[in-house]
Specification:
The complex is a heterodimer of chains A (363) and B (365). Chain A is 33% helix and 20% strand. Chain A has helices at residues 62-69, 100-110, 118-121, 128-138, 143-156, 161-165, 174-185, 204-221, 232-236, 256-261, 266-273, 313-317, 336-342, 358-362; strands at 20-31, 36-47, 51-55, 78-86, 92-94, 111-114, 192-196, 224-229, 241-246, 249-255, 323-324, 330-331. In chain A, a hairpin with a 4-residue loop joins strand 1 (20-31) and strand 2 (36-47). Chain B contains 14 helices and twelve strands. Chain B has an eight-stranded mixed sheet, with helices on both faces. In chain B, strands 2-1-4-5 form a four-stranded antiparallel sheet. In chain B, 47% of the residues are buried. Classes of the chains: A alpha/beta (363), B alpha/beta (365). At the A-B interface, helix 7, helix 8, helix 9, helix 10 and helix 11 of A face helix 10, helix 11 and helix 13 of B.
Chain lengths: 363, 365
């Protein structure tokens, strides 16, 4: 790619997709009568059957992004903008226009959501099987057929269906609870699964195992998945496309390999370099200086400028739009070409099959 | 400020004995029972089983493993917070629990052992008193160790320590309550508080796991800097092999991999990551996210089952045999001991070329 000067730059559109299932346009979430922004004019489209990983630090607005897709912003937050859902039969639902009852159906039957901490999603006094039956009844589904499907889902998640259905939540380990919750969220056969830190608080081995199972589920049931996490390398194992959030807005969207190997935003590059991983040379791992802004104090211009080593006067005054920085790759940075050149990544992005030699390369 | 005290204890405890030594330590918990099964044999959870480990001055030992593998129990046992049901924990040659019970010849009083072995918890928010300002939280240990130090000197010490752990301006931070600090800052206060006791060893129990990924390296760097400066050893507990590697390699220490209460492999970070001997270590390596693209796909895990067996009734022989992709009949029958050269030891028959394992039939289920 040839570096272009600012005046010739082409712009990217994060809603440009061929077959979107969810389109979010100019979504804003405000609290305190518009004083506090926790989601700042975000547009993004999710392609049918793709897995999107949304990455951000604590307090970057990533949970708001997930909740906005289902119009599930906690009160008294106010969501404005447009959320469109395209059903498989070609019709379109305007999510923000749905009434309570329609929204309730939409949330389980079209788009399901899994939160972190399965323990608080389950009723502790009800057996896991009871949760499945109650959900099926509440949505007027056939309980016998539904429970049959529930057993299949539980087996897909490497759980013993009879044992799990007959257990109270506390009798299962954390990893089993979280897998049972994923099965529960899929029992009404939704097309989209939105997950907010679904593996947080589990150990790394269970996190990775769940990710592998999610990938199998995605292929078996043709699911569209949105996976929200602070853990970039974790979701990189699953995602087709990744989006990075900083200070309540998306700052970079790209296919997985592009985002990891050729990101254009200084923040994404800093985030990649701050991640401990087995292959990176130790002396080059760095944390990111400074702190991300609070929702009432977002700087004008680029919100990352106060921490950015490449920031210029332009960054402090003009908020960067999404530039077209490669195939399906969009970066909200005025200096994306300079970032690629000047901020080195501390790991080798290899795509050949040198499996055994992987740690050699880094040394 | 810690130098004279350390020299003093050295003379008393003898310089031969390691700082801390675990001898065949065993911790078994009895499971709580309901009223109805009152007459039945209580169920025992074997949290830690037959572990021997020496920790030297200025040493770093990282314990890694899944949830429930006993790493926290082992950590707490080594600093004298959990009483072992078998074996002994010695501090500079002195049996810690004999000192507590004042049994036999006590060379080092328990109070001294207690203050030499400190802990930082996973959740700093709940380990700091929410009703006290940082200044008061940090004043308490100084009042205990140096009752004669005046208010002004105490304040000066606290300020300089806060600055040392990267909290500037110190006077401003000292005047805050814990909830006014971020998670990373709270953890720094917890670290500062542990350091005020002039400890010989700090147990960091998942101390960075609750922090954002981008802050973890910074916190580990701080602990390692202070390790050199204050001459402390660290037992660092983590479920993440990449953090374990970072800490062990920088601190020039060892990583011990635990599975169901036992150490299955121990060695330097380089040995464990470049040349893992135990199939379980390979599983942990698989579980560690890797940014290098060729490793990014979610491949099949190198194990047969996802869930850990019940520690009440651990598998016979090698405890990993129910999940191990390489398990054979021999693994079900007998339990491999830790063997190896230098610092690298593995408890797996596969490291022994002439073991009966190689002739026994593979397990499949």
């Amino acid at each position: 790619m040839t570096p272009e000067t600012t005046s010739q730059q082409r712009y990217g559109d994060p809603t440009a997709t061929t077959d979107p299932i969810i389109e979010m346009r100019n979504a804003k979430v405000t609290y305190d009568d518009g004083e506090t922004f926790v989601l700042d004019d975000v547009s993004m489209a999710i392609e049918r059957n793709e897995v999107v990983g949304v990455v951000g630090e604590s307090g970057s607005g990533k949970s708001m992004f997930a909740s906005a897709m289902l119009d599930a912003i906690p009160d008294p937050g106010l969501l404005t903008g447009e959320i469109l859902y395209h059903k498989a039969d070609g019709t379109t639902i305007d999510v923000l226009e749905l009434n309570q009852e329609e929204l309730r159906q939409f949330r389980w039957e079209e788009v399901a959501m899994v939160f972190q901490g399965a323990m608080s999603s389950f009723n502790p006094t009800m057996k896991v099987g009871g949760h499945f039956r109650e959900t099926l009844k509440a949505h007027d589904a056939n309980v016998t057929e539904g429970m049959e499907f529930a057993r299949e889902l539980l087996s897909d998640l490497y759980l013993d269906p009879e044992r799990v259905l007959d257990s109270y939540p506390h009798e299962l380990s954390g990893g089993m609870q979280q897998r049972a919750l994923i099965a529960l969220s899929l029992v009404l056969e939704p097309n989209v699964l939105v997950m907010d830190e679904p593996t947080a608080a589990l150990d790394l081995l269970m996190q990775r195992s769940i990710l592998m199972l999610l990938q199998e589920l995605q292929e078996k049931y043709d699911l569209t998945m949105v996976f929200i996490t602070h853990d970039l390398p974790l979701v990189a194992a699953l995602a087709d496309r990744m989006a990075v959030m900083y200070a309540f807005d998306l700052i970079e969207v790209a296919p997985r390999d592009q985002l990891i190997g050729n990101s254009g935003h200084p923040y994404t590059r800093a985030l990649l370099n701050s991640t401990p991983n087995l292959d990176a040379p130790l002396e080059e791992m760095r944390s990111i200086e400074g702190q991300s802004p609070a929702p009432i104090n977002v700087p004008s211009g680029c919100s990352y400028a106060p921490r950015c080593p490449l920031a210029t006067e332009e960054c402090r005054t003009d908020e960067p739009p999404f530039y077209d920085t490669g195939s399906d790759h969009m970066t909200a940075c005025h200096h994306w070409d300079a970032a690629r050149e000047e901020i080195d990544l501390n790991f080798e992005a290899i795509d050949d099959e040198s499996t055994a030699a992987e740690t050699e390369d880094a040394r | 400020m810690s130098q004279p005290e350390i020299a003093e204890t050295d003379r008393r405890g003898g310089s031969e004995a390691p700082l801390l030594s675990l001898e065949d330590v065993e911790v078994h918990f009895e499971k709580d029972q309901g009223l109805l099964d009152f007459f039945e044999e209580p169920e025992t959870v074997q949290a830690v089983d037959g572990i021997s480990l020496d920790i030297e001055e200025n040493d770093v030992v990282v314990l890694v493993g899944e949830s429930g593998c006993g790493k926290s129990t082992l950590g707490k046992t080594s600093i004298g917070l959990q009483r072992p049901t078998g074996g002994a924990v010695r501090y500079r040659g002195q049996d810690v629990w004999a000192a507590k019970k004042k049994r036999g010849d006590v060379d080092i009083p328990f109070s001294e052992i207690r203050s030499s072995l400190q802990i930082i918890h996973q959740d700093p928010g709940s380990s700091l008193n929410p009703n006290q300002k940082i200044l008061d939280i940090l004043a308490t240990p100084i009042k205990q160790t140096h009752p004669n130090v005046g208010v002004n000197e105490r304040r000066q010490r606290i300020y300089s320590l806060l600055e040392r752990v990267g909290m500037n301006p110190a006077a401003d931070f000292a005047d805050r309550y814990p909830h006014q600090l971020s998670g990373g800052e709270q953890q720094r206060v917890a670290l500062a508080r542990a350091l005020l006791m002039n400890p010989d060893l700090i147990l960091a129990d998942e101390a960075i796991s609750a922090l954002d990924v981008s802050l973890r390296v910074e916190m580990m760097d701080l602990m390692l800097d202070l390790q050199e400066e204050f001459d402390t050893s660290f037992v660092f507990i983590s479920h993440d092999l990449s953090n374990a590697r970072y800490f062990a390699e920088h601190g020039d220490g060892r990583i011990a991999v635990m599975y169901l209460g036992e150490i299955v492999e121990i060695g330097t970070a380089e040995q464990l990551i470049e040349d893992p001997g135990h199939p379980y270590t390979k599983v942990l390596r698989w579980a560690t996210p890797d940014l290098a693209l060729h490793a990014a796909g979610a491949s099949e895990p190198p194990m047969r089952k996802i869930d850990v067996p019940d520690p009440v009734d651990p598998p016979s022989g090698c405890r990993f045999h129910t999940r191990c992709p390489e398990a054979r009949e021999a693994c079900r029958e007998s339990c491999p001991a830790l063997t190896g050269e230098d610092e690298h030891h593995t408890a797996c028959f596969r490291t022994q070329p002439d073991h009966a394992y190689w002739d026994s039939p593979p397990l499949d289920d």
